User: Fold these one by one.
Assistant:
Number 1:
Amino acid sequence: MARKTGSHSDITGPRVRSAARSLIARHGFAAVTMRQIAREVGVQAGALYLYTPDKQTLLFDLMKSHMDELLEAVSSVDLSGPPERALEAFARFHIAFHLDRAEAVFVAYMELRNLTEDNFAVIEDQRKTYENLLERILQRGRASGVFAVHDTKLATMALIAMLTGLTTWYREGGRLDRGDIQDMYWDMVRKAVGADAALSA
Amino acid sequence: MARKTGSHSDITGPRVRSAARSLIARHGFAAVTMRQIAREVGVQAGALYLYTPDKQTLLFDLMKSHMDELLEAVSSVDLSGPPERALEAFARFHIAFHLDRAEAVFVAYMELRNLTEDNFAVIEDQRKTYENLLERILQRGRASGVFAVHDTKLATMALIAMLTGLTTWYREGGRLDRGDIQDMYWDMVRKAVGADAALSA
DNA sequence: CTAGGAATTGAACGTACGTTCACCTAACTT
DNA sequence: AAGTTAGGTGAACGTACGTTCAATTCCTAG
């Protein structure tokens, strides 16, 4: 036996990435074997190497394309308005984006230490770029007096951690709907940085 | 060659746990080998099995004793006062405790998925117990009107994520000292839940 | 000073890993 | 209808894993 009916690179490639993402999110990169990924895709382990040169690159590509998507998506969010508005836009974007991609986010945050030095540097740089968007909003808000933040770097890390944390407990079809979650998180973010109340759309 | 001068179970045991904790925090449980741990301790791999029945139990014991310590330590924090006071006590305790044990915390939060089902249930239960302490404070505060929190469960997760996140960026001897960090995080926590300002000791 | 147990070695066991490769076959081109 | 090739198999490679255990050495008690 060899090639099965209806097999196509266009189909298998994405399926490999999807299976890898899912398994890595559940069990961790080091704990997942190429044979497990292959089984999930319905293919032999050797076939995976038509789609990635090696396991490390598979992880890196997963994380890289996630960060690319994140930066691409956030680039169309308007963060140029008044700081309170920009912060709300950022927070709501962050939550919505992360709710849609819980597995990818989980991988991107948990598997940093399994990247080679070079690969780590690339992802870390992208992450910094993203976090800087938030920090600049906080800086503007502090400068104009609407935010009461002692240290914008620490506040940035605190807010990112809080917002990203939702991927650890959020499950599709749970008690809370996405809109509620966005509203409640935004409420906490807004108050945490001391933005004055009530500035809806 | 066999036993080296000055070797003692009382010394090697803790060193095994410490080396394991350190390596697992840096590289992840699945990526760390028994031989690496042994090398760090200065011992052969076989000797580790005098101190743990197997690798999985080593991880579990690390996490279990960390959670035991956490619950033991928090039990002597007075959380019975007014909600704002209790929240401050909890936040400051959480930060101080976690700053002292960055590696253990990192392991306890990142390696949950590498526990067997039974072991996971134990740790998860302890974690829930701890989080419930915070949630009860939030509930009391909301009931008495000093906290403005829409959903205490979500707020609990958000605050824990924010506070625990500091272990991902805090490094000994960095720009900020521990007191500053406590003050700034407490400030954000207090405002996030809508506790009225200025209620220092 | 000597026996006996505690601590540790070093080699070995079976298993499973990531990766390679010669071969095969279904589908597209002409 | 034949030829080409992308897509895939399945077996094999060397390595490294977790774990076991007989043998060895150091320490302690009497």
Number 2:
Amino acid sequence: MAHPAEDVRPPTMADVAREAGVSHQTVSRVLSDHPNVRAATREQVTLAIERLGYRRNSAARALVTRRTRTLGVIAVNTALYGPASTLTGLEEAAREQGYLVSTVSLRTGEGQGLKDAVDHLASWGVEGVVAITPQRSHVQALAELDAPFPVVTVEGGHQLDLPGVSLDQELGARMVTEHLLAAGHETVWHVAGPDDWLESEARTAGWRTVLEENGIRPPRVLTGDWSPLSGYRAGQELAGLALARRGATPVTAVFVANDQMALGVLRALRETGIRTPGQVAVAGFDDIPEAEYFPPPLTTVRQDFAAIGRQSIGLLVNHIEGRARKAEHLLVEPQLIMRASTRPSNES
Amino acid sequence: MAHPAEDVRPPTMADVAREAGVSHQTVSRVLSDHPNVRAATREQVTLAIERLGYRRNSAARALVTRRTRTLGVIAVNTALYGPASTLTGLEEAAREQGYLVSTVSLRTGEGQGLKDAVDHLASWGVEGVVAITPQRSHVQALAELDAPFPVVTVEGGHQLDLPGVSLDQELGARMVTEHLLAAGHETVWHVAGPDDWLESEARTAGWRTVLEENGIRPPRVLTGDWSPLSGYRAGQELAGLALARRGATPVTAVFVANDQMALGVLRALRETGIRTPGQVAVAGFDDIPEAEYFPPPLTTVRQDFAAIGRQSIGLLVNHIEGRARKAEHLLVEPQLIMRASTRPSNES
DNA sequence: CACGCTGTTGTGAGCGCTAACAATCAACCT
DNA sequence: AGGTTGATTGTTAGCGCTCACAACAGCGTG
């Protein structure tokens, strides 16, 4: 294996053909599992391939077939647990289907960034893109961009005619809220995520619906930005309300729109001397790995990110290969994880 | 099959050439910013490109230049905060340099998975790979794989002759340990990460060195697996030791090898009625976004993931473009973030 | 004016592969 | 036997691009 020159080119199909004593076309047939090749020939070729360490040149292949077998993923905020997990799911599913996946992470979706990302991917000839862009404005921008390939959204809502996959956020919120009401709470307060986010809207909607179904007038919604800090601030406000006790609606249960904010709420309550769940029950959303170790362990809603990834890729590939035409929208079921933070206790 | 319009092929360089009234070669020159093109001609071509919505075919380009301008990333455990953040940094840096980045996430690095990942990327003709494989066995396996392209490791240590970038884990551990000793603690206990991990080893080494430098015999090391649960277990053991009080080495300060385990330790201490930092000070490593909202806010070590990503890509590109030959190893400086969990209090 | 130079443009070949078609041969039928 | 079939293999022509080189203009120089 002495490499005298660095420039030794990798073997080509012609090299293999020569080595096996057949034509390059036969080599091609073996590689693409064409049925009409004699077993003996096939073996010759396979052996030659192995001897030379041959590997098909994907660029040449792409050039002639006009298929790059490459998918793009555009994601915002990839360091967060949710997007990161979805990414993993996407990537695995795509690899199984024989696609290469290329990711573009945006810090936070400025409109220009999105366009650049699409451009970047387009210039590499991706055949389709999955966009994890959970803000309404992004989905809007994406729809208007009119990309030259199919686009599937994750958590992109279904108001526009882009196909997509989402967790049933509303159902998740309903489950939490119902769980809290069932535990005997008179009402449930809510710390929502930022306005523009579709997940945020759906969770708030689910919460509101359940309250209204039970004839309860929903209390004022507090709003955060998903960060622990914003949760902390909301928690301080809630703590104030809980202690004041003169308002018509007592604060004994809070549904926080994600686990990180819930962490902040818990801290604020603790600092104010309010016991959880004794005086105020708290629930979150996402089930991040830390949630089980929060003080106290957090009741939350788990998302099956792997399933979301698999379904998105499935949908995208269907579009690419022309098996789907319309803007289908799939929902994945969430799962309620009950932990100590909403456990009914002996205290009032 | 009634898609008459679906089959319109994207415009080629020849189309642009015809539109602009020049040869395809001139178009190519404009596209690659060749200096010897008359300004007027250049404008003609640019206009034609715009009119037709032309885009260079990357496959054809790759075929003739033998450069795919694609990089691979192999990462284990991408849903964790650290790897996910590094990934973002890598991806941005690569895009800036005009490379496409394709990620392969492995659940947890079985040897076969690694080989498959390299194969997958190789079959797409990546020009180099960044591997975020922080376990010694992975790096070993990677070195033995002898990939047909340069490989740069992140947190891969420098004992093998693979170039790489790492945070100066040992320095980080030293900073924490010194900080705790300076606060007056007689000794510092340590909850380490799993054995095979290089980060784990380096953090333990840094801690041990500082103790020895100060003439303190390091207490027994507890070991976890990075998860909050394992930290919780270690915390229970430490709580037992702290309360027993008959051992020669008092438990008043603990350096936990990552924040998630520290969360578990904190919970165990709290449940046993031990106050933090009053009775036992606790420090972590990573500075995950939640750390600031732990009970109490956690002293920890912050890593500059963006810098790590940028440097890895820089190193890799240098190797690809032949500007670097030897297995250089870069270190990134950590930053100590001091919070309440190690704040000296009035109690002894 | 012949010569070389530089700047600008065009021509032709070929990267490594697949798709379409042609060629060959054995087997089978009437 | 002659023709038809089907399986197997080879031949040829590009895919869209870049590279090497040729061609030609305009210019200054001896």
Number 3:
Amino acid sequence: MQNSEYNFSKIEPIWQKYWAENGTFNAIDFDKRPKFYILDMFPYPSGAGLHIGHPEGYTASDAYKRFKKSQGYNVLHPMGWDAFGLPTEQYAIKTGRHPKDTTKENISRFKEQLEQIGLCYDSNREVNTTDPNYYKWTQWIFTQLFKKGLAYVDEKPVWFCPDLGTVLANEEILNTPEGPRSERGNFPVERRPIRQWVLRITQYADRLIAGLKDVNWPDSTKRLQANWIGRSEGAKVSFEIEDYEESLEVFTTRPDTLYGATYMVLAPEHPLVSKITTEAHKEAVEAYIEKTKVKSDLERAELSKDKTGLNTGAFAINPVNNKRIPIWISDYVLLSYGTGAIMSVPAHDERDFEFAKKFDLEILQVIDDANQAHKNADGNLNSAFTEAGPLMNSDTLNGMDSDSAQKAIIETLSAKNAGSVEVNYKLRDWLFSRQRYWGEPFPIVWVSQDNYSKINTEFKPKGEPIIANFNDEVQYAVVLPEEALPLKLPDIESYTPSPDGQSPLSNAHEWLHVHFDIQTGAISEQATENTVPGTRETNTMPQWAGSCWYYLRYVDPTNSEKLIDPDLESYWKTPDLYIGGAEHAVLHLLYARFWHHLLHDLGVVSEAEPFKKLFHQGIILGEDGEKMSKSRGNVVNPEIIIDAYGADTLRLYLMFLGPLEAMKPWNTKGIEGIARFLRKLWRLVILDNETELNPKVDSDQSTKLDSESERLLHQTIEKVTADYESLGFNTAISQLMILLNHLSKLDKIPKDTVEIFLQLIAPLAPHIAEELWMRLGHTGVISEAAWPVAIQEKLATASVKIIFQVNGKYRGDIMLPNNPSKEEALSAAKSNERVQAQLEGKQILKEIYVPNKIVNLVVQ
RNA sequence: GCCUGGGUGGUGGAAUGGUAGACACUCGGGACUUAAAAUCCCGUGCCAGAAAUGGCGUGCGGGUUCAAGUCCCGCCCCAGGUACCA
């Protein structure tokens, strides 16, 4: 505490308590006021507590919420906890403490820290993804996916991390110079085939692209999502393989270049490789496959800058001209995209060109470049020509443009049953299971084939049954009825996953083995004539599951009958503003959109898109300009700042650092300016060292502001209002500083002017604003007061400043009565001394007058 | 490589095509004080000058315009994302 007058550590807790106890910021269902739903990305309550990055976005949303409330909106601004996750489970493995208990402690620490910053949330609407009453509905959504045939089980080669004892998704893998590592812990990882649940997000790919045009998001984020989904239109073409029954399917976006296909390339893992490779090439090909297996995708990409590959000795037949072309393998072709095989057209694809050059394969130009392409002296291409153009070397299609040729070729192919139009996506289905304890259990029971046939179809997926092998026995998946939800996590002795990669739940024997009622789906411990024996699914859901739909539950957090009440849903709809980091631009936002579309199909929600407006707050870097991290030792702890300067100063400073969306370094020295600003505000209202009001503040309204001060006041109302609306808090604060600097120089200040100032700063510095508001004699809180509105007449001026320029350079200015004529302005300019000095001995070529703004004399 | 952002004083950053550097930090000088803190006043882009003022200045090179940090073309650098997507 540096100042005995403005005692923030005394007043801040008082107001925090007041807002909490009075539910000042609680939303009211079905209120007549217009609704406004503002959402923050909810945090993972880690053991480390709050990081300075959290309060940046959270302060912005808290300020915006207070602003909107003052403007007369019924504001919903909730907070919750994304509390399933690996660190808590790791901690449990280490200490044996139940993740439930650790989570509870972490949450209460987070809550305390958020409250200290003056962040207010509707406490009746807190959600916690690990609460069975919450995850009941996460499981319910999964049952809907299951029944619609949008979930399946697949044996997938996925990243396995022996140190963490779990499977990791691609997005949890870091590519380091030492090879692939786990994002958490930086442990080495390897590929292993494991039974996994997968969701068919690809079925929604087109709708997820289309929906992007209906949302107000940063363009860069929309593009990122569209690119991630990666829709490409083209054709599937099938090539016969010489001497084999099988044919080779490829996907191409350029069917018009089919005549230029001079060889084929298969991914080394392609199932046909071992079959078609000739004796002479077998040994080398097998060695190459082995080498590929140990490479990560990134190594494959990186090392293959210089392309590698081998001939299999086999030949394919081009369906349009029956040309015999060799089949190669190379790791630049990925099994996971398209069909895992390509037709190579080196003349018109850069990668193929490079490969053909390296292995001296034929390059046949089939698109006329009209002399645009780089060629060597012999007239051969120096690089691939990848644009469209008229065809050449293509029999009857010569001269036809690329577009028409694509259609013609696909038509020819489909007549021969050798090809068709095809759409491909980069997006892959969503790997939805983890071999962990601390996640939502799947409401699934596995039964034998015989027993499966006895079970009510209600518990089975639409379409194909879901089957998996357990110890060489085929099992069928059935889903639990809604009444059986939530399926709670059982208590277990050890949280350590078994070394075979199975979840720790596989050791919870009593929980594991159940009897499933074939009619009702009810689970019982004892067998009856209506039950069949089954085994529960031991995988749990990924952390994304709970965070995919939490924004809906805030609206109706305690409903045990429904995920969300339809009336409440139609009142609150979806968030009007979503603030969160750009690091979630793809995965979280895409998964949540997928589920929201699904819920829309199910009639649970009334709109297809969940987040109308999205804002990405930036990142606060350490004082050294680097990302804050423990290892760098540049982490700023918000609690220390609050102790030294108070929450209001921290809030203002976080917002003053720069634009909300920017990445900006923290600078502890700079906070002094904000601290001075608030002390100055305090002194404006309260007399030094006393609790009484500063006599400068005229409470009987006998003084009036002079017109210049009044104009500044209303300009400030206007600018601050507009800046808050666009989340431009940094410039709003500097405008408030200008006004305060001005007011503090006046001898007398009308009380209502001070009050307006307090209202304008209240969203950002709510504690001091409440305190001074009360001391000015108000019985109600400033949080409930209506937002001030600028009076247009007060903004008007009687005179206008005209800038003088000579050859575009500033040479002086003058105040003139409004709307001076061109003649008046010009003569004022010409009679200015500095202007005259510039005109000395020169000739005026042109006289520009921009009304009420500027005179520019062009001279020579 | 590709896709996004972005390059403005010693620092963070302001600027609907119209006075570049608002607002702060830092630093320097002064007032108040026994002293310090707090507070207040003055200065603070660079160069020349006692000052008035003048010249130069928004990554670099061109262009459009009476006027460009802002618009157009070409480069350089930095940060983030992505990884051969056929």
Number 4:
Amino acid sequence: MAAKRTGAQSKRSQRIGGSLQSAREPHSEQPLSLERIVATAVELLDGQGVDGLKMRQLADRLGSGAMSLYWHVDNKEAVFDLALDSVLEYRGPPQTVESQDWRGEVVHMLEDWRASMLRHPWSASLLPRRRLGPNILSRLERLSNTLTRGGVTDADLNVAIWSLWNYVMGATITRANFNLSDDDMAAAQQRLTRLSERYPTIERTRLLLDNDWDGAFRKGLDSLLDGLSPR
Amino acid sequence: MAAKRTGAQSKRSQRIGGSLQSAREPHSEQPLSLERIVATAVELLDGQGVDGLKMRQLADRLGSGAMSLYWHVDNKEAVFDLALDSVLEYRGPPQTVESQDWRGEVVHMLEDWRASMLRHPWSASLLPRRRLGPNILSRLERLSNTLTRGGVTDADLNVAIWSLWNYVMGATITRANFNLSDDDMAAAQQRLTRLSERYPTIERTRLLLDNDWDGAFRKGLDSLLDGLSPR
DNA sequence: CGTTAAATCGTACAGCGTACGAGTCGGTCA
DNA sequence: TGACCGACTCGTACGCTGTACGATTTAACG
């Protein structure tokens, strides 16, 4: 019955870019800030995975009390959103309108996208469930521009973008969740051999044991681009 | 320091197919069983999503105490695994070795796969994180066979399979998490217009507002198959 | 000095998965 | 018959979670 979520974002005001930084040390090492919170959250997520991020632990790592976080951040979900978008920032050369090799550019952009996510394996599975942040949108914008430059018409553009998105997301999510140690590999190997008469083709082509992920990604992407290229 | 997870699957013995069913009503309505647990878990997941499944609620719905579940099931994760695989069972005609239209078969299989997952939207995002169950493996086996029949050599098979897997998973996960009400659509519309000078191409082609998901899936799949087809 | 807003945090609460051990039941064998 | 046993159920309790609430501290300014 209680009225909650009245719409305010967080208690602090909206201006994020304020550049004041006094040299105060109130009692702990540094004052809290959105930036520090997000950076530390990314560290923890990298180390412990999505389920490993706990508000108390995050606060501990920052040298503050758990509830102090909530002045800067609405709730745990917001921490995820911020960490996610921060990790997807594009650090590449500015878009050159001149280049002729549009296809090479597309491949490079998508490989960079995938690499960014694989550097933070929790990010891939998180991305499709959350609202698209500014960094993702500008990656999509870039991609659209390059494809257009390559001759894809507006009528075909959405299908092309979504196809590439689907492929990259699927590949990256799968890869990110499939980290086998050597022991695991051996176990899987054995399990599979045991099932070899039920799944003969899978066994014959060693589908689940082929671990050249990067090469397979690249080859599949090439095929997809072959199919998408304007005739 | 405690030694846990000594390897036993669950306390009950392994035989699942035992056909004994006495007509007893001990105190509640029906005796528990793996089948009932899984079926009810699927119901709850359909209704409340992944985070909405609680062991206590599941037990309530089954008319039993929460801890009774644990005699049939190792832990909550096992419930997810079982629900997931149960939902991915292939209910289609048996594979006909004769058919010439291998490409039509592939499209049909993958559309069916996608449809099965979209009927239970929690399943798509869960699938890549868990070990592949028997029903997924046999779908992959089927797919491999059809592609082979279509002329794909063993050397190219894994790339083809993974490309299709990636595409289908990416498309389905994205779709499953992108369920906008009309209100949301209006809001997104507005938000986007506000950003139109930052993302002009996205705005121009209405990338995020184009909601012909089925058509886009089909077209993209066609392109991908074009690219993958042996020359 | 007093007042105010920004920022911090101790305490508390409801809800979660599940360990543990006691309980019930039906069948089997002496 | 009564003792025993394995299959199955479940009440209680523990540790852990996110976070609501309100008191508290601090910096800034009149």
